[in-house]
User: Fold this.
Amino acid sequence: MNLADLNKVAQAMVAPGKGILAADESSGTIKKRFDAISVESTEDNRRDYREMLFRSKDAMTKYISGVILYDETIWQKAKDGTPLVKLIEQAGAIPGIKVDEGTQALPGCPGELITVGLDKLAERLKKYYEQGARFAKWRAVIDIGQGIPSYTAVRTNAHALARYAALCQAAQIVPIVEPEVLMDGDHSIDRCYEVTEFVLKETFQELYYQKVALEGMILKPNMAISGKKAKDRANVQQVAEKTVKLLKECVPAAVPGVAFLSGGQSDEEATAHLDAMNKIGGLPWNLTFSYGRALQAAPQKAWAGKVGNLNAGQQAFTHRAHMNSLASKGEWKADLEKKAA
Ligand code: 5MM
Assistant:
């Protein structure tokens, strides 16, 4: 492992004013997204949609540091035969790859999940590196509910995340470590804080046990936020203050950056929260975005599967990428959304 090179890539992924596009929807998830805009989820449609995003010149060159791809996409070519990975590189962004293989029921823990995909991961990473991937992603899913999460679910997922991260670094690939505490449910922001604190502390303990170099990884956490169905949901300032406090309690300063997931927040909420955190400032890590839905909901709606809407789709994507870029520097204002509408 060459840690200096891993650190260089990690720093570039969270470079000031830039963030990550999570375009790694698995086949089931992209089908759900396409169903919502009445587009059939064929290989060509998935390619055309993602090609539209990667050819959004302003967004990709100014605001996006890297793109997380799904296995199908990393091998795909654009309509003119250019590999999609090349389009990303030509824009000056870094290609990355989702390497987990989804979740399965965790034995002995009703309602809880374990992320799988460690078998043969070392071999797969080698091939992804040859194909151009310089970072990877693995997502653990932790649900909050009656009596959950269990200690077993938190520990086994932390162990798998650390095992993945160690294998990535051995393959000269920067691991994005994503332990997602879901915002489904009616729990309070304090309950989310408590669970996320437990999850992050266990995750960093496992990263230490498995000798993962913190300088060569990126953390992709959820924010401390009320459940979607909670009454009296916490406001923007409360989310920002509690998330910053949570990170300070749990994330070592050696980690180069924190790139949040959006987790089902609205586009503008996700931007406002990131902005408010960066306005607090004085943090040891760069705080940016690694959004899927909060970057893609608008372009998906604008595109709707029609060639004639390519420009509109690219404009919608560029706008969200721009707003989040400003938020990653604490320079976003709600007015900027209205002006664009
Ligand atoms: C883009 O969605 C990713 C893949 O999800 P599936 O494996 O379930 O298809 C997802 O891991 C995503 O990268 C993160 O959850 C962040 O996306 P959001 O939409 O939460 O910002």
Notes: The chain has 14 helices and ten strands. The two ends are 47 Å apart (CA to CA). The beta strands are 19-22, 64-69, 94-98, 103-105, 113-115, 135-142, 174-181, 218-219, 257-260, 286-291. Residues 189-209 form the longest helix (21 residues).
